[in-house]
Amino acid sequence: KQEVTQIPAALSVPEGENLVLNCSFTDSAIYNLQWFRQDPGKGLTSLLLIQSSQREQTSGRLNASLDKSSGRSTLYIAASQPGDSATYLCAVIEGAQKLVFGQGTRLTINP
Amino acid sequence: EAGVVQSPRYKIIEKKQPVAFWCNPISGHNTLYWYRQNLGQGPELLIRYENEEAVDDSQLPKDRFSAERLKGVDSTLKIQPAELGDSAVYLCASSLDSHSYEQYFGPGTRLTVT
């Protein structure tokens, strides 16, 4: 059974810092990996989707990498801003569009 | 374009009472998902529909949970009777079709069972 783990569970950093969120998974037979953002009381917003044949994806200040062989992905956030405060979830996509989520990292950016 | 709509947004009930959640997916999206998210955890899939057919309900606790998507558009998830452990956020998501990896999530319904 696929297990997805995110470390750390919570992270607090000063504004302007670069930071890395980690995601690991136990079964490398995945189709894709996706990073989401969840704001309190709201649903999930997709940030980046990395296909299994890719090693990274970039969108603005966000960069996500994928290493299937080691079962790891990272989300890099450059020049963090208070508006980046949210919970970040990674999910591996298995066959038939099944998403298996990690428990999330709660990120706080302090002004 | 309207996103995934869910109602109610919040629900508080006593244990053993029934409760129902409603979801209207993005127009034209054939695939609909219900997830449950416990506090401090990621969402877990309960059921997936392709049009009106439930193609994956292996994680749905069938003794008390039921779902329907009669016309292949909106969907209802029901719990009867509710238990204290059912307190969670219930998320609905939709995607264009079975070949699309992009799932779009609604805001969820926060259920509290007392």
Using brief descriptors, characterize the structure shown.
heterodimer; A: 111 residues; mainly beta; six-stranded mixed β-sheet; five-stranded antiparallel β-sheet; 11 strands; 59% strand; B: 114 residues; seven-stranded mixed β-sheet; four-stranded antiparallel β-sheet; globular
Overview of this protein structure:
The complex is a heterodimer of chains A (111) and B (114). Chain A has strands at 4-7, 10-14, 19-25, 32-38, 44-51, 56-59, 62-67, 72-77, 86-94, 98-101, 105-110. The model of chain A has no long low-confidence stretch (mean pLDDT 93). Chain A is mainly beta and 111 residues long. In chain A, strands 2, 4, 5, 9, 10 and 11 form a 6-stranded mixed sheet that branches. A 5-stranded antiparallel sheet of chain A has the order 1-3-8-7-6, with no helix packed on it. Chain B is mostly beta strands and 114 residues long. In chain B, the strands form 2 sheets. In chain B, strands 2, 4, 5, 6, 9, 10 and 11 form a 7-stranded mixed sheet that branches. In chain B, strand 4 and strand 5 (44-50) form a beta hairpin. Chain B is globular. The termini of chain B are far apart. In chain B, 37% of the residues are buried. Chain A binds chain B through residues 4, 9, 31-32, 34, 36, 41-46, 49, 89, 91, 93, 96-99, 101-104, and chain B through 4, 31, 40-45, 48, 55-56, 91, 93, 95, 98, 100-108, 110.
